[in-house]
Amino acid sequence: MAALGGGDRERQRNGIGMTSARTRTRMVDRLRAAGIKDELVLAAMNAVPRHLFVDEALAIRAYDDVPLPIGHGQTISQPWVVARMTELARNGRTLGDVLEIGTGCGYQTAILAHIARHVWSVERIGALVAKAKRILTSLKLVNVSLKHGDGSHELKEDLAVDAIVVTAGATLVPTALLPHLKPGGRMVLPLAQPGDEHGVQRLTVLDLTPAGIKEQTLDAVRFVPLLSGLA
Ligand code: SAH
User: pTM surpassing 0.85?
Assistant: First the structure.
């Protein structure tokens, strides 16, 4: 693809052509047809310009229902997965404070920021934290706090949230995060199940109920792995 001139880039930022609001509306129609029901989530998916979160050369594919590379061996999750996890995290409630593990380029963060009071998002790759910060700032999303950290371990912070969304594939429940969940809170994560093909996980919902943790195993998904340590 030829380099974009200033005017082209301006048009792309404004969302004309393959990255237009109309393309986004079509994506939302497909999400609805694929079973996403939460209108608040669909409105957020309609509002956030997904093409700004991928490299310009990939912007033309930004609204296809596929994951795309974002550098550093990581991906932006496919729209259906982002919508589904957000719908599960909200669970029909007014969403207060949310912790996301695995910011990546910040797309899921932006969707959550549209429907939650505040989003804390943790990413282990420093360069991605900087990239996400740039994009989220340009979108004027002020109810977001990003942190360079390892979200598979306890966060050294006094943070209590209503929902935790883990956007990297876990082989075990990251129990270190559970103390950050308020009573009645919910964790949504891709969790590998015994017998699953390598790299496949199930969307898993953990509800912190008075009677203990209630677990539901849902759709099969494919996420990059949840890793330890910083990069
Ligand atoms: N939420 C993103 C998905 C990014 S892919 C989206 O909207 O598309 C998953 C991200 O999780 C990667 O950027 C990866 O670096 C990050 N990650 C993996 N293990 C992590 C950990 N222990 N702590 C924080 N981030 C982690």
Answer: yes
